[in-house]
Design the sequence.
DNA sequence: GAGTAAATTGCAATCGTTTGCGAAATTTAT
DNA sequence: ATAAATTTCGCAAACGATTGCAATTTACTC
């Protein structure tokens, strides 16, 4: 149990009375080695708490079994690292990666290097990259993709790109949210978000289509571009009401955090919810159902999302064809819209 | 710009017309090398998108510049990976580590191996370990510590352990929360959490002390052991009221998520907040101020926490003495307790 | 211009594992 | 018993960067 000196494969082999080659093969259960020899060495390894030096192994095999996960946020003013949805996705990715024998190296886009291919792949820090968020600009992503780096992005799956994108059905999500509000009687519905984002713009399209399908006019003045944070939403709603009064009766929000900010502003002004204004969020973070009123929202299956992203990444690592993937998206109706 | 063949340090050196040794030294700005040579090689490296192979480098230097961060959660029923506070801490740790030139390898405690020293350190996956959460049992932590692994734990800093612990002032947090409720007139205050946790038990001690100091009796029936999730809190409050009616007028919660669960249960039963029951949370997650009523809570400075954890870890890596550290803990008064 | 000190650079070993290929041991066939 | 075919194992060359030490070049002194 005492670790006298660093235990290497060579020493382990010596203990077992075999060569390092057999020891190496035995540890990976290579059938080239006699069964008894294998189990003997494996037992010895366990007994001595041996574990292979990954640095050496990676150098030799040119594989790291590490995947870099990058939170691709433009800067602090935007949807931030504190958004529970993004972090939940990270957690799910960790699970999914572990299940496939990979580890997760976490990074955000404020790192030193903007050249992901170089920094992560050429340097053998990781075998592939998972990017969370297309952001407003896909420059860095495109740059990395040019280097033929194994890469999967969480974003809008309708976007055509040289890399696979996994995402929710944003058009449908926007449509369902809007349709639901319209069916509850709303007539002037704000779209609170930022339609410059690929994902968000798809949702906005769904928002418009829902209006068209129900024969309701779309007022461009209802498309409100804000940072994707609760603070920005809070400020915007306050300001809008101050300027033009309560000129709306529904809000489609681009994330639950945004919805919470809006909700707070409305409640402080004693606007009835859903009586005066109905609100729909997006993501179904855990807090959504704890709100008062509980928040109607669009749920995206993050666990499925993580699994799909990992699958597509493995496809690339093993030279199989890849495809964009759409994850389940469903409307969860709660009190913030349900008139009773 | 086209990458014909894998660019190694040797090839780069050849391009520059020097040996690999000089190239290596030049890239790390070693003053042993003439200034012009240095900048020439650095320029060449930039131009060719060169980046050092970390696998080789780690093997040679025996340093990885990677730190493993372990979310130490007993299982799914407990405070889970979705708790915004924990995830926020992860984000802050990432920032702090990057600032010191380290990268963050994310893991949770559901991984294959329970032997962290082996899995992360001996295998050269990482140079050190940051553990988030003491949990109910410190078995795995102690095991790792026995192997003299560089290790820092987020937990209760009052605990005496063979490894440095960074944590909030839990006693004071519990005290301040309770004292505040008492000052608002509460007389029967629930402690909603799990006093088997080291951190939580300190808070409970503070809770008791506040009672003593104000001359109020402590009813053991007010110490409510639940899983640290909003769902458990919700269920508990519901059940308690069903069983014994509203036999309390204040709640000290062990996390904001727990507080949100309790809040929801109370609101559904039309219990006035803070009129009938005042609630104090813990952590000050971003949603706390968006709640209605906004949530009074104990803030722990996560950014400072992350920095301290990294400092203590570096101390170990560089053989300096280490100490337990306490991060700022303050009471944020909001509407869930403030009578007006 | 010789001699010494200082500034630069290169040689070659090393980190620990993996793996193609050949050698030895064992089994099967003749 | 011997040859042939299998099994089972070990040799030795990578993988790419780092670094103590020695070698070379340059600068300086008298």
Sequence:
């Amino acid at each position: 149990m005492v670790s006298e000196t660093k235990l290497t494969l060579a020493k382990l082999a010596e203990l077992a009375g075999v060569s390092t080659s057999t020891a190496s093969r035995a540890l990976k259960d290579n059938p080239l080695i006699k069964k008894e020899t294998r189990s003997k060495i494996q037992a010895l390894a366990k007994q001595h708490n041996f574990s292979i030096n990954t640095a050496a192994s990676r150098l030799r095999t040119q594989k790291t079994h590490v995947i870099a996960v990058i939170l691709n946020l433009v800067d602090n003013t935007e949807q931030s690292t504190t958004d529970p949805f993004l972090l939940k996705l990270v957690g799910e990715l960790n699970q999914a990666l572990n299940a496939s024998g990979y580890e997760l190296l976490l990074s955000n886009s404020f790192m030193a290097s903007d050249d992901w291919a170089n920094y992560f792949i050429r340097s053998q820090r990781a075998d592939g990259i998972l990017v969370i968020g297309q952001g407003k600009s896909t420059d860095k992503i495109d740059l990395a993709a040019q280097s033929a780096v194994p890469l999967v992005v969480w974003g809008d799956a309708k976007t055509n790109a040289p890399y696979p994108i996994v995402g929710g059905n944003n058009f449908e999500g926007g449509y369902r949210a809007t349709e639901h509000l319209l069916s509850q009687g709303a007539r002037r519905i704000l779209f609170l978000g930022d339609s410059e984002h690929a994902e968000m713009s798809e949702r906005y399209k769904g928002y418009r289509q829902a209006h068209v399908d129900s024969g309701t006019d779309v007022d461009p003045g209802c498309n409100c571009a804000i940072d994707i944070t609760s603070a920005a939403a809070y400020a915007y709603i306050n300001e809008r009401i101050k300027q033009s009064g309560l000129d709306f009766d529904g809000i489609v929000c681009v994330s639950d955090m945004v919805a919470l900010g809006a909700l707070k502003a409305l409640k402080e002004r004693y606007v009835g919810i859903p009586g005066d204004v109905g609100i729909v969020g997006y993501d179904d973070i855990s807090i959504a159902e704890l709100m008062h009123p509980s928040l109607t929202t669009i749920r995206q299956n993050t666990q499925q999302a993580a699994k799909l992203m990992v699958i597509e990444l493995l496809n690339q690592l093993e030279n199989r064809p890849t495809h964009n993937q759409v994850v389940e998206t469903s409307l969860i109706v709660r009190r913030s819209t349900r008139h009773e």
